[in-house]
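Section 5.1 Outputs to date
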Amino acid sequence: RQVAFPAISAGVYGWPLADSARIGLQSAAQFLAAAPAESAEQMTIIFVPFGTSAAAVFQEVAAQLGLATR
């Protein structure tokens, strides 16, 4: 049970990258929190930012939110 979210357009067209990361990460965390524990433990949600600088922003926002990253 895996889903990947490519963040190709995150941070472009005037939408700040950090906002995009925060919204996506918070939504994923809320989804997992609402799922039954046995289901949530079997799920993997992967964010795929475009480039190393975008990946760093996603990691920074995840750390601010107290979310685990790999």
